[in-house]
Amino acid sequence: MFRGSMVALVTPMTIAGEIDEQALEALVGFHIEHGTDAIVAVGTTGESATLSHKEHSYVVKRVVQLVNKRIPVIAGTGSNSTDEAIELTQAAMRDGADACLLVTPYYNKPPQEGLYQHYKKIAEQVAIPQILYNVPGRTGCDLLPETVERLASISNIVGIKEATGNLERAREIIQRCGERLDVYSGDDATAMELILAGGKGNISVTANVAPAALHAMCKAALAGDRETAARIDATVADLHRVLFLEPNPIPVKWAVHKLGFGSEGVRLPLVPLSVALRPTVLAAMQKAGLQCA
């Protein structure tokens, strides 16, 4: 249903931690101009964990308005409470999102049957396309391929963001689910290989700062052109690494700031990028040909 480079958009903030409306508008325009294929609003990179429900819905609604149907908008609506995830998903559908991205329930560590029932209930309650999101390194919860295969039979569960970086895992899901479920990378460093193996795109952190390159890489990989995809990916390989030197979205928030979009402000308990790491991130941006402020 969705293809290509899908940016996991940062939520621009002031140093004081308030949403920066002007920077958000400019950032959405930047992605439209540079070929981003879809925008994921208020996912992990958008600091969903520290936005209030009111702010969460506001950012989704505002991104939908700014995009104005030019590309799809996917809203992050996951929670470790099934009822809360339903409420957020209903709000995103009401506010015009094209789909929702639902991270596995974090901290409470449900068994596989609990994960199946969680996603099944959300899909039954809210008639919007839904993308599963598996990132066990952050959640302490792993959505296994056999459970993904069960969920693929639910008509409005249309994809999975597989962020383990495990290509064998991704290949297994593709083999099990076939055309019933699209598989997207959630790991920039292995995204090219996942797409070449049959994945449909990349939900990307790096695309926040290098949208044109990520769009071009995904396009080439979707066409099966390994040589072109690898050549483009090599230009941003250092970014894939340095944007995770501290927990996401700390480095990418600073990098977006260096491109001229708002401040490096993040909300506590996150703090801005360590001063010692800033030259390393800047060097990777410059190597990728980015114009920094």
Automatic annotation (TrEMBL):
What the entry lists under SMART domains is as follows:
DHDPS
* UniProt pathway: Amino-acid biosynthesis; L-lysine biosynthesis via DAP pathway; (S)-tetrahydrodipicolinate from L-aspartate: step 3/4
A single Gene Ontology CC term: cytosol
Q: Which GO terms describe its biological process?
A: diaminopimelate biosynthetic process; lysine biosynthetic process via diaminopimelate
Assign the protein's first listed, main location to one coarse class: cytoplasm
PROSITE patterns per record: DHDPS_1, DHDPS_2
Report the protein name in the record.
4-hydroxy-tetrahydrodipicolinate synthase
Report the source organism.
Answer: Thiothrix eikelboomii
